[in-house]
Amino acid sequence: MSVEQNKSLMRRFVEEFWNGRKFTLADELFAPEAVSPVEIHLPPGPAGIRKKAETLLAGFPDLVYSIDFMVADGNRVSAYVNATGTHQGKYLGFAPTGRRVSWSEIFAFQESGGKVVSSWSQSQMLSALRQLMSSPAEIIDLYYKYANAGDWSAWCDLFSEDMVMDEQLAGHIEGLATLRPMMDGMDKMYSKFQNIPKQIITSGNEGAVVSHISAASPSGETVEAEVMNYFRFANGKIAYMSNFHDSAPFKPVLGGEPDNTQLVFRMYDCFGKGDMATIKNEIFHPDIVWKMPGHHPLSGEIRGVDRVIAFFEALFKAGIKVDNTHFGILDDGTVVEKHLGHGEVNGKEFLFPTCTTYGIRDGKIADVQVHTGDQHSVDRYMWAQFKLRKIPARLTA
């Protein structure tokens, strides 16, 4: 074919196949054995280009190409084209945004016997994807919009595949594949759910929101809670999120025996705030026994509320933090809780995976047994952080 015939072939490909949606034209333009070396995931021949069109048009149904210029030499022809379309369908993991997007692309064909036998396509798709990426402020707006509409599928789409979440009630969550089935249960957990932002702050790839949740359990019991969410964004998605709130208002929607579980929730809330008075007067039984395993200055049985509170105060002053909490409850009302403790000494971080059982008596925590996942780490931290008094002082105590 002549240079002009090859240009005509390219023009028909752009104007008729793409813009005219005449997909049967692929059989006329492409040889059955045609390949695309840079798009090896596509099948050979006309089926390959139709598959590409199907994928791209699913995301941009009104996509239109315009030829900027063409160059032909022998049996090869190239065209520099501009693409414009509206993002109305899911594309490369991006939920529809309704945004008008444009990018540039180069098409190149090698012809033999009047048909394309090799094709190349190089696009500025990264530029297009950046246009689809919402800013942190836009993502936060959608986060609350989808939640308040009960559209938890679209809500999940805001998170990256490798997302991490530390949620006050659900605990530590890793991966979108874990989050999605969890959110499927929201309609069963709440008969009504509204989370209204009151204050939004964004800075770079981070954001923080203070909001108010007004919700109701399936039986109609109300939930009113103040909440603070922290977000970290990457590539237009939520990569990490954590939230902080008083867990007591969520008692109506907690599973199992909420009273006992709520007691432990309150203990952690108060500990995080340093509110030892509430723990002593409202949460701990006067005759509480706290059993701490290990070989360190704080190990052993600690008896009585005053001594356990002194133990708590020492932990709080040392900067011990607790997150990734998960709860269960046994038939006798005993609460089983696991968490990850954090401590630091001289710039070195110590991690304490822990499981604890809480026996409840007279509506208060009365018997506690701590089980540590890495006792050696706990011992090293405790010895580094807490020093025994000299022997004479201990003998006279």
Question: Which radius of gyration do the C-alpha atoms yield?
Answer: 31 Å
The ordered H/E elements are: HHEHEEEEHHHEEHHEEEEHHEEHEEEEHH
Main β-sheet, spatial strand arrangement: 7-6-11-10-9-8
CATH fold type of the largest domain: Nuclear Transport Factor 2, Chain: A
Quick overview:
The chain has 397 residues and is an alpha+beta fold. The protein has 13 helices and 17 strands.
Written description of the protein model:
It is a single chain. With 397 residues, this protein is an alpha+beta fold. It has 3 domains: 3-132, Nuclear Transport Factor 2, Chain: A (Roll), CATH 3.10.450.50; 136-251, Nuclear Transport Factor 2, Chain: A; 254-395, Nuclear Transport Factor 2, Chain: A (Roll). The protein contains 13 helices and 17 strands. A 6-stranded mixed sheet has the order 7-6-11-10-9-8. Helix 9 runs antiparallel to helix 10 (276-283). The longest helix is centred in the first third of the chain and has 16 residues, at 3-18. The model has no long low-confidence stretch (mean pLDDT 89).
Protein traits:
single chain, about 400 residues, alpha+beta, Nuclear Transport Factor 2, Chain: A, 3 domains, six-stranded mixed sheet, 13 helices, about 30% helix
Record the SSE blueprint.
Blueprint: H1 3-18, H2 25-29, E1 30-35, H3 46-59, E2 64-73, E3 76-86, E4 100-112, E5 115-123, H4 125-132, H5 136-149, H6 152-157, E6 159-167, E7 171-174, H7 176-183, H8 186-189, E8 192-203, E9 206-216, E10 222-234, E11 237-245, H9 258-273, H10 276-283, E12 284-292, E13 300-303, H11 305-317, E14 321-329, E15 335-345, E16 348-361, E17 364-372, H12 375-385, H13 391-395
Parallel strand pairs: 1-5, 6-11, 12-17
Antiparallel strand pairs: 2-3, 3-4, 4-5, 6-7, 8-9, 9-10, 10-11, 12-13, 14-15, 15-16, 16-17
